[in-house]
Amino acid sequence: xxxxxxxxxxxxxxxxxxxxxxxxxxxxxxxxxxxxxxxxxxxxxxxxxxxxxxxxxxxxxxxxxxxxxxxxxxxxxxxxxxxxxxxxxxxxxxxxxxxxxxxxxxxxxxxxxxxxxxxxxxxxxxxxxxxxxxxxxxxxxxxxxxxxxxxxxxxxxxxxxxxxxxxxxxxxxxxxxxxxxxxxxxxxxxxxxxxxxxxxxxxxxxxxxxxxxxxxxxxxxxxxxxxxxxxxxxxxxxxxxxxxxxxxxxxxxxxxxxxxxxxxxxxxxxxxxxxxxxxxxxxxxxxxxxxxxxxxxxxxxxxxxxxxxxxxxxxxxxxxxxxxxxxxxxxxxxxxxxxxxxxxxxxxxxxxxxxxxxxxxxxxxxxxxxxxxxxxxxxxxxxxxxxxxxxxxxxxxxxxxxxxxxxxxxxxxxxxxxxxxxxxxxx
Length: 427
Ligand SMILES: Cc1cc2nc3c(=O)[nH]c(=O)nc-3n(C[C@H](O)[C@H](O)[C@H](O)COP(=O)(O)O)c2cc1C
Hints:
- The chain is of the alpha/beta class.
- About 45% of the residues lie in helices and about 10% in strands.
- The protein has a single domain, classed as TIM Barrel (Alpha-Beta Barrel).
- The strands form 3 sheets. It has an 8-stranded parallel beta sheet with strand order 4-11-10-9-8-7-6-5. A two-stranded antiparallel ribbon has the order 1-12.
- It is globular, with a radius of gyration of 23 Å.
- Residues about 420-425 have low confidence and may be disordered.
- It binds flavin mononucleotide.
- The site of flavin mononucleotide has 25 residues, from α3 and α16.
């Protein structure tokens, strides 16, 4: 029987509206790459590049992502996946998911509230939020907004007094882990920032003046008080804005004589989990262990420091093999999908730390943007686990993936460091 055209039009309209209307592109962004595009649209180039850019030719930044794509899954079909559990336990902390939000400084440069919205989002999602020493809000100001676990990331400045004070304050706000970043003895040279005049102080060029006018919301947000600076140091540094703070840090706090003995000092001051961030070789992983650290971040700072460092995923297998069960291995750099998280865990990490992924969300829409990013990653993570046939995080191992043999050292000329010789020669 022929259908009445009116009723079929009504049925069609019903079908169209069944899924509801989505007017906010963030709500329908299916991937971190889509969120990145929204961030790019919202920000002037000079601000977007602060997050997106990396050092020199950005070889390492690109390889972080492309090498993760080299890891392929080996699915195990017809496994009972009615109950996939992505929770995990790391050094006594039970986590709802196998990843944490890593330290990103300078978040007010992307406009909005900077780290404040992000720490609120972390609380709502109950994911550890790592406060950076270079954050634009003081750790106490962030702790006031936090309803979830906090970790604190420390830069080892020249002044032992300032470092001891930062550690004491991190304890006072209830930080559950201390992350010491060791790959910034010198700041990487970021070509994009140079081209954009994005130094501290910024260089005003016709291009960025025009962009500031075209992005008035951003311009208003960065001009809102308090003046943008490194507020964790506000009682220590001279001046009250990023320019004077940066000058002070470069002149009085940069530490070019730092060695592993300083990590032993930190160990004496911190009872909780202590992680060293920026490890790319088994040798340094072993040094971190000797200095008393509980774990390491296999990380190249998202390619923002030494360009042509290996991608983190390429460095991971040999480091994971070298430390075995003696240390917690946290993977960082290049994570853009839930699949990436699963890959890193399968190759040998115990936990993953995300960087730009949440930074793009924060840049696109503050708290709401970060929540969207976590939602995307959670969904992709569970989907990948289910499709793989892995129902628990600690079931993930190398049998679920394949990746180039060269990452275990084959076919690559790589001489061991002459560490033992140096140690014997010391007078
Ligand atoms: C804008 C920005 C600021 C960062 N600030 C810090 C910081 O203050 N301390 C730190 O240890 N790492 C910092 N990082 C590095 C991240 O913690 C992380 O190692 C890196 O983003 C990982 O790479 P991915 O973004 O590709 O995942 C920063 C990264 C970005 C993009």
